[in-house]
Amino acid sequence: MNTLTQIIDGKLISLQIQDEIFLQVEELKKNNKKIPHLAAILVGSDGASETYVAAKVRACERVGFNSTLIRLPELVSEQELLKKIKDLNTDSDVDGYIVQLPLPKHINEYKILEAISPQKDVDGFHPQNVGRMALNLPTYLPATPFGIIQLLERYKIDTIGKHCVVIGRSHIVGSPMSILMARNTAFGNCTVSLCHSRTVNLKEFTLNADILIVALGIPEFITADMVKDGVVIIDVGITRIISGKTKSGFKLVGDVNYDEVAPKASFITPVPGGVGPMTIASLLINTLKASRGDVYQQLD
Prior knowledge:
Elements: E1 6-7, H1 10-30, E2 37-43, H2 47-63, E3 66-72, H3 78-90, E4 96-99, H4 109-115, H5 127-134, H6 143-154, E5 163-167, H7 174-182, E6 191-195, H8 202-207, E7 211-214, E8 231-235, E9 239-242, E10 250-253, H9 258-261, E11 265-268, H10 276-292
Parallel strand pairs: 1-11, 2-3, 2-4, 5-6, 5-7, 7-8, 8-11
Antiparallel strand pairs: 9-10
């Protein structure tokens, strides 16, 4: 690998943020203030969702938050799930909560997201919070894009005036990421191209990218011939593929062919250990903000 390539260690930064939050929680305890409380609703037993929710619970323990995990069966009705959401909306002890995605096909995901109180929407997916983000108003930012912004900030990566190419337009990562990178903020102010499955001549965009954020879900899609020297690579994808080189017979890879692309990059996130851990750190930050109740009050 190019000795000038700097690996962006998301795991390290996530732990640093958790340490900072732990100290703030200790202060709350000393002053007999309310301890932040994060709840999660998990429907069914999807393997990836189980792993992710378990990591959230461990992170809450690490920083001293209270946490509640509500498990519901795969076949739970939409009405029952909505009732549980209503209960959490009115529970004054719960500061913020998430409904783990994806949901079973018989449940309307958008209906569920809209039912969550915007003030408790620490995942940042409610239309009201998405709108506030687009207007650069105080809000809860979606956890993964928020995590990426923090990586750029903590590694002091210059974004102002740069061409940022985002590949993927999901409402969870790609679309909000494009908004955040274009905002008039210290780690925004990019000229942004949002590319997707219908983009013609994608390689023309990626070759012109100063910052390339890939959230496509196609393993090792970005290759060395698609990027220029000195590019900043943020790889959001994670896919489990068969491998003869590991004991398990599988390995985790991103949307970027790391071995090929890393030598050309100035900064690059590995998979795993890059963006993933930052999602949880962001969720904890949002929950801390929710417990203070000051996000929406900043406009009063």
